[in-house]
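Listing 4. Sequential folding, example run.
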Amino acid sequence: MFEVRLHRRVLKFLERLNEKHRKRLISAIEKLSDPLSHPYEKLKGRKNVYRIAAGNYRIIYHVDKWNGVVSVLPVDKRERVYERV
């Protein structure tokens, strides 16, 4: 099991969402304690950085296998999230 760490920007973003979208994203983020067990895609040109889809939103995360940490980077709508990585 990995420890999941959220950036403070992710927490602020989740606070601004409506309840339906927030629940969907939190559910997807909770599954990251086992980061490579569910459908994911590696981001090209990035080492150990992956993405998962949750509806129209994307969760970008970095996996540090040595320390057992998953760092959730930006979470945003599909059309904006890749500009922030």
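-- end of first protein; second protein begins --
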Amino acid sequence: MAGKQEKDNNNVIQPFEGRKIRTAWNEEQEEWCFSIVDVVGSLTNQPTPRNASTYWAVLKKRLIEEGYKLLTNCKQLKMQSADGKFYNY
């Protein structure tokens, strides 16, 4: 799926629909991890990462209140933010 150069870099920004999606290569499981906040922001056309984060938090809360469970365990990973610093997302 991705080239060797991208895997070696570990944290890569992937374009999607003109928006940036932060990714990280999980060497142990040999798979890409994506920032759910970036994906939600892109799919819902949120103007800022803060809006996307709030949207995701509210959506998760509503789903849990309605009795739904997330199909996957969304772990927080350290990913680079727009200001160049690394935060848990």
